[in-house]
Automatic annotation (TrEMBL):
The lineage of its organism: Eukaryota, Sar, Stramenopiles, Oomycota, Saprolegniomycetes. Pfam families: Glu_cyclase_2. Residues 1-20 form the signal peptide. InterPro entries: QCT, Quino_amine_DH_bsu. The keyword Signal applies. Keywords: Signal. One of its GO terms (molecular function) is glutaminyl-peptide cyclotransferase activity. The keyword Isomerase does not apply. This is Glutamine cyclotransferase. PANTHER family: GLUTAMINYL-PEPTIDE CYCLOTRANSFERASE.
C-alpha cells in the first residue's frame, strides 16, 4: 500500500515537472486581455539590424539597416537561413522598411529620401525613386494592396501612390486622443495596421482610416526569451537592439515578430480582444 502511494506520487511529480516548463513559458508570454501565445521560436540572424519583415509566397523577406550592412534577403522562416536571394543597398545607404506589391519589392531608406524598386523574383534593381515625409526620413513600410504605406518616426503614416510616390492621404496615430510618436515597422493585417513603436515593446493595432489605436499589445516579456542582446558589448548597439519587425503569415494566421540583432523570431497566436472576429478565430 505504502509503496503504491509512493509510486503514484512520484509519477504525478514527474508529470508536473515535465509540463511545468511549458506552462511557465505560456504564463510568461500571455498578456491579457488581448493576449498572445508563443507558438514557435525560430532562429534569427544576430547580425540583422531588422527594419522590415514580411511574408511573401511562403518566405520571410527581411530588410536591415546600418550603413554598409543594409540588405534585403529572402529567408526560410523555419531555419532562419537565406535562400540566396539578396539585394544589397549601396554602401552609404541605411536600409529601412520594405513591402511587396505585385512583383515588386519596394524599399525605403532612412535619410537619403530615396527608395528602391526591386524585382521580387530576381532581386535585381528596377529603379530608384524619391519620396517625401515631414521628418525627411523613411522608417516602416507596408501596403493595403493599393498604396505604399509609410512611417517616418513621427505619429504620421502616409499613403503614397505606388507609381508617383505622391501622397494620397495621411493619418495621425493617436491613443485616447494623444499622438503616438516613433511609429516604426508596419504590417497591414486584414484591414488593420500593426505597428512597432521605436524603443518600446508595444505593438499597436491601428485603424487605418482614423489612425486611432484599437489595442496595445504589450510584448515586453519576449525580450527575455531572446538571449543575444545581453551578449552585445557596445552600448549603442545594446540600446538600439529593440523590438522591430512584424510579419503576418496568411497560411496560419500567425504573427512573426523579432528585434534588431535578436537571435529569435517569435511566432505568435494573437488572441485579439476587440472587434475583429475574423482575426480572433484561430484555426491554424
Ligand atoms: C547573417 O548576416 C551576415 C551579415 O549580413 C551574413 O554575412 C551572414 O551570411 C548571415 N548568416 C546567414 C546564416 O544567413
Amino acid at each position: 500500500m505504502g509503496i503504491t502511494v509512493l509510486v503514484l506520487v512520484s509519477i504525478c511529480a514527474l508529470a508536473a515537472e515535465s509540463f511545468a516548463g511549458f506552462d511557465a513559458i505560456q504564463r510568461r508570454v500571455y498578456a491579457p486581455p488581448g493576449g498572445f501565445y508563443v507558438v514557435n521560436i525560430h532562429p534569427h540572424n544576430v547580425s540583422s539590424f531588422t527594419e522590415g519583415l514580411l511574408f511573401d509566397r511562403g518566405m520571410l523577406l527581411e530588410s536591415t539597416g546600418l550603413d554598409g550592412q543594409s540588405y534585403i534577403r529572402e529567408i526560410d522562416a523555419r531555419t532562419g537561413l537565406s535562400t540566396g536571394k539578396e539585394f544589397k543597398f549601396p554602401p552609404d545607404i541605411f536600409g529601412e522598411g520594405i513591402t511587396v506589391l505585385g512583383n515588386t519589392i519596394y524599399a525605403l531608406t532612412y535619410q537619403a529620401k530615396k527608395g528602391f524598386a526591386i524585382n521580387r523574383d530576381s532581386f535585381k534593381l528596377l529603379r530608384s525613386f524619391d519620396f517625401e515625409t515631414n521628418t525627411g526620413e523613411g522608417w516602416g513600410m507596408t501596403t493595403d494592396q493599393t498604396h505604399l504605406i509609410v512611417s517616418d518616426g513621427s505619429s504620421t503614416i502616409y499613403f503614397f501612390d505606388q507609381k508617383s510616390m505622391a501622397k494620397v492621404r495621411e493619418i495621425t496615430v493617436t491613443n485616447n486622443g494623444q499622438p503616438v510618436i516613433n511609429i516604426n515597422e508596419l504590417e497591414y493585417v486584414r484591414d488593420e495596421l500593426f505597428a512597432n513603436v521605436w524603443l518600446t515593446t508595444n505593438i499597436l493595432r491601428i485603424d487605418p482610416i482614423s489612425g486611432n489605436v484599437k489595442e496595445v499589445l504589450k510584448m515586453e516579456r519576449l525580450q527575455y526569451l531572446e538571449s543575444n542582446v545581453e551578449n552585445i558589448r557596445e552600448s549603442w548597439r545594446k540600446v538600439d537592439a529593440v523590438m522591430n519587425g512584424i510579419a503576418f503569415n496568411p497560411e496560419n494566421n500567425h504573427l512573426y515578430v523579432t528585434g534588431k540583432l535578436w537571435d529569435a523570431v517569435f511566432e505568435l497566436q494573437v488572441a485579439l480582444a476587440s472587434d475583429t472576429p475574423h482575426v480572433r478565430t484561430f484555426d491554424g
